[in-house]
Design brief:
The protein is an alpha+beta fold. It contains 4 helices and 6 strands; from the N terminus they run αββββββααα. The termini are far apart.
């Protein structure tokens, strides 16, 4: 069995993986509606140099946050924070510039959503927050909030 991962070793021995059905809100074993049940595989523990490795729920890979639930809400919130940061930096440094220069700077530095095409599963409220934050950053940077009476 050299070169096989622990999961492959379980399958090759004829043992099937242990499947535990958990209800979303409670951890007890239930037999109820399949829309309320989540399938969890109990994986064998992995070890490296004698210490057991744990599974993580969230990791950062190439600057993007990835979750075990495959939702992109945390990555959208990260992009939201970066948008506010970039808009505030531009506002502090270029507050005396004309509107045309500010628009060019905003398009250059704040409209680079490279990971937008990677987002597939997200909540509608999270995307609405991003749209509202974009409008708020434009208004703050162009100082149109002060012009509204």
């Amino acid at each position: 069995m050299l070169g096989l991962t622990p999961t492959a070793a379980i399958w090759s021995n004829g043992n099937t993986p242990k499947i535990k059905w958990n209800k979303w809100n409670k951890g007890g074993e239930k037999t109820c509606n399949t829309s309320e049940i989540m399938l969890h595989f109990v994986f064998p523990s992995f070890s490296l140099s004698g210490s057991s490795l744990s599974f993580v729920t969230q990791l950062k890979y190439l600057g993007h946050l990835m979750e075990d639930t495959l939702y992109d809400d945390s990555d959208i919130n990260r992009e939201l924070r970066c948008l506010f940061t970039r808009a505030n930096v531009l506002n502090r440094r270029f507050w005396r510039c004309s509107v045309a220069v500010k628009l060019r700077l905003f398009r250059t530095f704040c409209l680079c959503f490279y990971d937008l095409s990677l987002w597939k599963y997200y909540k509608v409220g999270t995307m609405n927050k991003l749209a509202a934050a974009y409008i708020k950053c434009v208004n703050i940077f162009l100082a149109t909030l002060n012009l509204v009476v």
